[in-house]
Design a protein that fits this description.
Length: 239
């Protein structure tokens, strides 16, 4: 069992809690693999609602850049590709998904929130997707599908930090709620997820989510394969 991910299943609700609070729940390779395995397992164990949370002050700080200097560009490409596949698995899950976010959230951590069908954040939450600052294209179509192409371009081109009120206005979030109210919100989401049979729910989700998985992965790989990925990341981190 990966000690960086807590998995709790109660009836038809599976809760995945990122548990690297000292690293702001940044996504290292082990945590990404554990999340991917847990999302895959949820498709076969009767899960009707998958909840994503993070321990500590932040939901997720995105890609863990620790050790990038020692990693090869091939290793970095593989790690980014694994994150994209995880995001696709959540986005195309055949059951309801709910993100509960707090604190400062960056990059792939914001994409993980975005991949969920329902998105709720604490009032103090903030979001930023800076990947294009170092030339990496991750999750652009998913963001555009959630908030519209013009709004997505505005956020990504400026690498803008935005708070919960703007996120709610854009449709990035569905609700702003203090963490103490989250258990009741999970119960509400679980009851809503039971309204349809598993088969009917899976058909509904498949019919209402555009499948751009091949293009999304290709975009990511092309952007990561441009020469100088490590140098681009290093320059971004200096800024």
């Amino acid at each position: 069992m990966n000690q960086e991910l807590l998995i709790e299943k109660k009836a038809a609700v599976t809760t995945l809690t990122l548990d690297r609070p000292d690293k702001a729940n940044a996504l290292d390779a082990g945590l990404v693999d554990a999340l991917a395995a847990a999302v895959a397992a949820a498709q076969h164990d009767g899960t009707r609602l998958l909840v994503l949370k993070g321990n500590g002050r932040n939901f997720c700080a995105g890609f863990d850049f620790g050790g990038c200097e020692q990693a090869s560009e091939g290793d970095l490409l593989q790690r980014f590709a694994r994150i994209e596949l995880l995001l696709q698995a959540v986005y195309h899950a055949p059951f309801a998904t709910l993100a509960l976010a707090q604190g400062k959230n960056f990059g792939a951590g914001v994409d993980l929130i975005l991949a969920c069908g329902s998105r709720i954040a604490a009032p103090d939450a903030q979001f930023r997707m800076p990947g294009l600052k170092f030339g990496l294209q991750l999750g652009t179509r998913r963001l555009a599908a959630r908030i519209g192409g013009d709004a997505a371009r505005g956020l990504l081109a400026a690498s803008k930090t935005f708070g919960t009120e703007e996120a709610l206005r854009l449709g990035f979030l569905h609700e702003i709620a203090a963490p103490q109210s989250w258990p009741a919100l999970i119960e509400r989401a679980a009851a809503a997820a039971e309204q349809l049979s598993p088969a009917a729910a899976a058909r509904l989700y498949a019919a209402t989510v555009t499948d751009s998985r091949t293009a999304d992965l290709a975009d990511l790989i092309r952007s990561a394969l441009e020469p100088g990925l490590k140098e681009r990341i290093s320059e971004y981190r200096k800024g």
